[in-house]
Specification:
Number of helices of chain A: 16
Helix content of chain A: over 70%
Number of domains of chain A: 1
Oligomer: homodimer
Strand content of chain A: under 5%
Chain lengths: ~290, ~290
């Protein structure tokens, strides 16, 4: 099965538990709506790619780690889109969850997806408890305080923003976790993978800023132009678009160069460079060519 | 150290991690605001009491499980109080978190507290990975879908409410988890403790309905009369107050009778009966006398 097939199967299996008999039906529907149909699945694909490069030996643990990371990402999108944050009307080309299901179910779907991530991880990790402990630490740190996604989002609520901390936490943390979890699921040391994920996360943040500034809504699959409207930090607005594109390319090169020694190192470096081309909005790739 | 001392110390230790250098300060403050000063700490005290009755041998694991349960309870209160749910002005005798810190930080504090619960549990469970796996399952199920707190809250969003499922999930699940986690932290089978927790949870829900219907706000420490205003299910409103008080007493008796055979069984039965007296609002205890 290819990487996307594995990821979709693992996500569906996790959601199937939440959809067990006796569930409140609308919350179960809202959770599935938040996770399917899929976005790019960038983080879980990264997790699988690293695990395979490390010679994975317990694929069901990799799958659960990847699914947990994507569930947490989906949860953060649902909560970020709420009226009290971005008040986004659309997400992945369809109405945002709070628009489709109402605000209460959007709050609860985010909460239940966070919990589901840990439930899925715990279930798959029962046979490999030592690796489970490492994975829980990596993934918990990437979403909680003081450096995870929730911390990153909270920097938007501070009177003075530490821009580096904001971006590292809001985007970099989960990319770092995706790489580190891939290694940990394969029983390899996780720490050397942090730099790869952080560089890719930074690149992805720049690409996201570029999409918000320059892509049309059909290509982005969500409301664009929000950074300027909301006065949020944006590499595209600060550096200008051509310099931001060059910065993105440098970051991707740094990420590929940071890949630690491992059985699949060459293939992973190539994958990173190929995938990175998909990050830049089509209109900009032409502009910068 | 007495039970409350252990619980407060474990909660403070968990929060200290979230308050590490580099944190967004207001989210860290909001999280502490959600957890301190303490409420009754009913669930973590129950967890410790069961662990001690089972002859606990790894108290730091009990403490982490109890803290995780309380952090999840506090998270659920913060999210329940949001304008899109109860829109509560006060909680534990002070402004509700979203009133004091704003709605964005209330959403994020709840999210970060959920994650912190799993972080704290994973850290303490590293030395006892088999027990950790059991605890993660018990605690995850108690807050997620299809039967945990989030599911319980979601029944409020359904056109047709399964009242039993609603109350079991919204309140019973975390009481059951508190008892089961106490046993699991002590290395004993958890399943026989479910019934004790479920009965106590049901008793606590009836007591909460009574407080909402009949206690004044100073005694309850929060806005009262919300069940009638919001049309929520309430034993006090359905049965009438005297019958609801009798029902509560029956449930507490059932809980004490359900305590499984264990080294501290007698002491635990007594503790349950004594603690239960604190559940009934003072004015009603007089009325029913």
């Amino acid at each position: 099965m290819d990487a996307i097939g594995r990821i979709e199967k693992a996500l569906s299996a996790a959601l199937a538990v939440a959809e067990g008999a006796g569930r409140p039906p609308r919350l179960a529907e809202a959770m599935r709506y938040a996770v399917f149909p899929r976005g790019a699945r960038v983080r879980p694909r990264l997790c699988l790619a690293v695990a395979m490069a490390c010679g994975e030996d317990v694929p069901e643990l990799t799958d659960a780690a990847a699914a947990a990371i994507e569930l947490l990402h989906c949860a953060s999108l649902v909560h970020d889109d709420l009226p009290c944050f971005d008040d986004a009307a659309t997400r992945r080309g369809k109405p945002a969850l709070h628009v489709a299901f109402g605000e209460p179910l959007a709050v609860l779907a985010g909460d239940a997806l966070i919990v589901l991530a840990f439930q899925a991880l715990a279930r798959a990790g029962a046979a490999e408890p030592a690796r489970l402990v490492t994975l829980l630490g990596i993934i918990g740190d990437a979403v909680g305080m003081p450096f995870g996604i929730a911390a990153g989002q909270a920097w938007e609520c501070e009177p003075r923003v530490d821009l580096g901390a904001y971006q590292r936490a809001k985007t970099g943390s989960l990319f770092a976790a995706a790489c580190m979890a891939g290694a940990a699921a394969a029983g390899m040391p996780a720490a050397p993978w942090r730099a790869v994920g952080e560089k890719l996360g930074e690149a992805y943040q720049v690409a996201d800023d570029l999409r918000d500034a320059a892509a049309d809504e059909a290509e982005a699959g969500k409301t664009t132009g929000r950074d300027a409207v909301l006065g949020r930090p944006s590499a595209a607005l600060t550096l200008g678009i051509p310099a931001a594109v060059r910065h993105l390319e440098d970051l991707v090169g740094d990420a590929a160069a940071a890949v630690p020694d491992c059985p699949g190192r060459g293939a992973l470096e190539t994958l990173i460079l190929v995938e990175a081309r998909r990050l830049v909005p089509k209109s900009l790739a032409l502009t910068a060519a």
